[in-house]
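Example 482.
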Amino acid sequence: MSIRLSNGSEIPIEMHKVRIVQRTRLAPAHERLRAIEEAGYNTFLLRSRSIFLDMLTDSGTNAMTDNQLAAMMQSDDAYAGSESFAKLEQSVADIFGYQYVLPAHQGRACEHLLAKAFVKPGHIVPMNYHFTTTKAHFDLAGGKVLELYTPEALNTRSSCPFKGNMDLGRLSAAIEKAGPENVSFVRMEATTNLIGGQPFSIENLRQVKALVEPLNIFLVVDGSLISENAYFIRQREPGYENVSIRDIIREMMSIADLCYLSGRKSCSVRGGMIATNRKDLFEAIRPWLPVYEGFFTYGGMSSKEIEAMAVGIREMTDVEVAGSSADAIRYFACLLEKEGIPVVTPPGGLACHLDATRFVDHLPQSEYPAGALAAAVYLTSGIRGMERGSVSMDRDEEGNDVPADMELLRLAVPRRVYTMSHYQYAADRLRWLYDHRKLIGGLEFYEEPPVLRFFGGKMKPKGADWGAALAAEFVSQFGPHC
Ligand code: F0G
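Predicted structure in complex with F0G:
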């Protein structure tokens, strides 16, 4: 929740107490330089011990609740027919209103199962935006991902409340061109991860459904950040200001035919699931579950995580939980905006996103501006963010780089983990970096995996060693211990 202080300013206020903590450490600048060099200027390859604030992702890094931890102690490890799974089914029935549940070890496993069951060579899969693992699975199955966002989606300086909406005109044109029989399904990602965690509206979801239903095309929601999307609907969509998060989620699910999710985000566990009321869809996927994931009642998840997920699904409908990261992100983004630092607006659902195209406007896209910015932010602050730009795009079939629609540095805000002093520290160091941005140079690959290269690829400064120069400038100002 955000609370107004007597001086008129607003702060995000934590509606929980912190009762278990984990120590963190700020490695000095010379150590950070060595660490980022060893990591090939790829923040994915840094070790936790070298990181002060880990803003790589909100995936699996949220603080769990006392009720989740307590539930984990009562798990039933039966290989088949686990009571823990029965609790998950009950939570899904109560919150989503869905009868059939397929557990999976995480979100991308659900995508694999959906691809296996429904994506055929030559198919198209229209969506509001792709996610890296989604695209990888659907491409591997021979499908073609079509991103049918509205023009506003890519505007980083927007006040549009629903930049995650699907463009209906583009959707109907794409279906007409491919033929409805060649559409695997339509996918709506609840807060479009790669373009700033931006929500879609209920109205848009309803319009998409109205368009595809008569054509016998089913509608899939990627609900990894479903509670945050619901929170934004409550804040931004006329008529929903007094509707509970629980009712909004229920309404979204009544429109969709199937929902899959990474449980690592809104649900604050490590797992995933597919849920639906459509028996035909359930039965098309179900045979593949024991082949790839595990038996029907655990699907590759530990029974402890299944218990925690059953609780997490209920807890994410609490408005204080649904808004916990969204409110912190808004606060963080406003701090940065006040300092003149280019951030994506409106602030979204999983992270505060820096617009690298504007931050390092002297770097061409071919030199990976967002990747360079990620390394520079780490060097000057010990904060680990994630590149969400051209490094996150794999090469095309001819081996050419594919420029991303946006060059973003994502500073993820895991739920209930960081405090206001952390955001203030981050804003201060980012301000210093922004003032010294001309010191940041480009990157080039020297090790490049063929698929999802952003995970394991290694890069180095292109031309002069700007990393060392930036670290030296930082030390000259702050001393050797910061
Ligand atoms: N869909 C969305 C919208 C996601 O954000 C993610 C993961 C997945 C699917 C895949 O789920 O990781 O459980 O296999 N996003 C993480 C992130 C990796 O850092 O944003 P997964």
